Amino acid sequence: MAYIMVDIESDGPIPGDYSMICFGAVLVDEQLSKTFYGKCKPISNKFIPEALAVSGFSREETMAFDDAAIVMRSFADWIKQVAKDRPVFISDNNGFDWMFICWYFHHFTGSNPFGFSSQNLGSLYKGLVKDTFQNFKHLRKTAHTHNPVDDARGNAEALLALKRNYGLKIKL
Which of 60, 29, 27, 25 is nearest to 42 (CA)? Predict the structure, then answer.
């Protein structure tokens, strides 16, 4: 399996009514050098200024981003290029990140290369340490900046630490 760590930024809480502004992905391997960064033009007139502010972009800047259909086709092509076998979606907050990526893939390309499931890094860590009150964030090396490639890389570093330091059996 090819684990692909994903992080997204949006201008609201749900896809369709609101827009995914940008997202980053990192193929999880020892190098963490294969990355994807997409910036999508808003698909809705609705946005929540506080949510958009997290991305670091203004509404005006986002209006110049690429059409979401083009970005999602490019992302699908990148996944095919880097995934030697079945791609597995994993993220820090997969309930949120997956919702946008899955919706955008189906809406703009007609299918999702990840299939119909995702994995949550935080839940994986909690299971390994047998404590639902713990979190993995201390395992990141790359600062969490809300640049989605940085954030995905930091989360991928944490997943690699789970393999090295906690004995997680995972084939990368």
Answer: 60
Catalytic residue among 106, 138, 144, 146: 146
Residue in 11, 5, 47 with CA at minimum distance from that of residue 26: 5
Instruction: Classify domain 2-166 by CATH architecture.
Output: 2-Layer Sandwich (3.30)
DSSP string computed for the chain: -EEEEEEEEESSSSBTTB-EEEEEEEE-SSS---EEEEEB--SSS---HHHHHHHT--HHHHTTSBPHHHHHHHHHHHHHHH-SS-EEEEETTHHHHHHHHHHHHHHHHSS-TTTT--EEHHHHHHHHHT-TT--SGGG--S---S-HHHHHHHHHHHHHHHHHHH------
Per-residue pLDDT tens digits for 45-91: 999 999 999 999 999 999 999 999 999 999 999 999 999 899 999 99
**Domain locations along the chain:** 2-166
Strands 20-27 and 87-91: unpaired
* 138 tagged catalytic: no
The pLDDT value given to residue 162: 97
